[in-house]
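Long-time lurker. I teach an intro course on protein structure, and each term I like to show students one example going from raw sequence to a predicted 3D structure in token notation. This year I'd like something fresh instead of my usual example. Would anyone be willing to generate the tokens for the chain below so I can use it in lecture? Attribution to the forum is fine with me.
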Amino acid sequence: MIIPFHVTAQKADSSPMTLQEVKGFLDYVEPAWYDYFLLRFMTGMRSCEVHGLQLKHIDFDHRLIKVRQNVVNGEITDVTPPKSRRDLPINDILSSSLERITATFTEPDDFLFSNDAGEPLDTRYNGKQVWHPALKRAGLKTRRPYETRHTAAVLHLAAHENPLYVSQRLGHSNTRLLLCSPMYLTLHAMTAVHFLI
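-- Reply from a regular --
Happy to contribute to a lecture. Here you go:
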């Protein structure tokens, strides 16, 4: 791939997972969290976007996830900027997963992922109590939960998907956010995201 502009340095170290590491993580994460992280690895959605998903945002008829809102510090807000407001395709794997998640839901405003009180998840709690312990059990190095997003991007590029399409799926305001990052040019030991499971 030829990048026709200067590649800038990352503001923070990035450490996307290989396909094998993703499989290992999903093998060791608590079963109750399997579908949550499967969704994150396959879509590249931000934590706040996943935590804002409600039943009304899942269009099973058209097989789409409608990214319309965030949960930030416990508050529901509209997704911004406009390009972050997007529809993500649901493949067969995600369809089965979403059907499991929503099987007992009755109200459009039911959150896909919530705490025992039915409230949106807390990002910091999730990282500390679920993400990092699962990494340790799987024998994987410590990295931020945000790396699920980076991992999704790299896996899609490794599957030879169009960088513009991948950038749109991630809700980037500018495609250069994807193409200028050295992280996304490191596609070692990875195969198509379609064979994630």
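Some talking points for your students: The chain has a mean pLDDT of 85. The first helix runs from residue 19 to 28.
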